[in-house]
């Protein structure tokens, strides 16, 4: 019972909490309407939605398939549900059942108000930021990767970077290989214990520099990058086997392993 409650709690998070649940109730109602609209709507909209829903909201499918093979990305299966299209299509069909245009307009306005009130803005500071360059990546990412590219000793260099840069480094350069990426947060695959130790320390304001540098040496990480506006670390790390070689975008201090 506890497991079932936990799984349904996960499902609720996947669909966006209570606000998302309201939209899914609207989608369920629209799908049900499609069942009565005709054979074509049943075959193309209702039954496919039901099939995907039965798989996605299935605790056993989630336990044996979702957690093993789709960890961190299970929610993407929701993309197979045509929520927006079904709601819009059903609403349009219902509106055209009203003979007078005035009633159509009233029904349309009411529907739009319901959707707007129960939704939340997508274009917000939480999800969007002003573009810094043509690559639409932070300038710091470009500066770090360009430095690595200009000082390659092989075809790529392994490095450790602050958590906020994990998803961006890999988009700009293949020369900068990360010790761990966004999978540190449970996406797609699980990282090793040593990598997880580094990730946890890099998440702290006062990281254990000795632990990070020791693991960096073991895993042949040539570069370590700290965000000096967040990480409280000594400026001189030569005692740990790394020396500062560059400061990128004012806040990102790059340290390179000292050649022995």
Rg from C-alpha positions? 25 Å
Strand order of the largest sheet: 2-1-3-5-4
The arrangement of helices and strands along the chain is: HHHHHHHEHEHHEEE
Average predicted local confidence, pLDDT: 84
Number of domains: 2
Secondary structural class: alpha/beta
Give me the number of helical elements. 10
Q: Distance between termini?
A: 58 Å
- Outline the biggest β-sheet: 5 strands, mixed
Q: Report the portion of residues in β strands.
A: 5-15%
Write down how many β-strands occur, each being a DSSP E stretch of 2 or more residues. Answer: 5
Low-confidence stretches: none
Shape from CA axes? elongated
Task: Bin the helical content.
Answer: 40-55%
Q: How would you summarize what this structure contains?
A:
Keywords: Membrane, Transmembrane, Transmembrane helix. The protein contains ten helices and five strands, in the order αααααααβαβααβββ.
Describe what you observe in this structure.
With 260 residues, the protein is an alpha/beta fold. It has 2 domains: 2-118; 139-257. The chain is 51% helix and 10% strand. The chain has 10 helices and 5 strands, in the order αααααααβαβααβββ. A 5-stranded mixed β-sheet has the order 2-1-3-5-4. β4 (242-248) and β5 (252-257) form a beta hairpin. The longest helix is centred in the first third of the chain and has 21 residues, at 17-37. The chain crosses the membrane at residues 20-38, 45-65, 77-96. Keywords: Membrane, Transmembrane, Transmembrane helix.
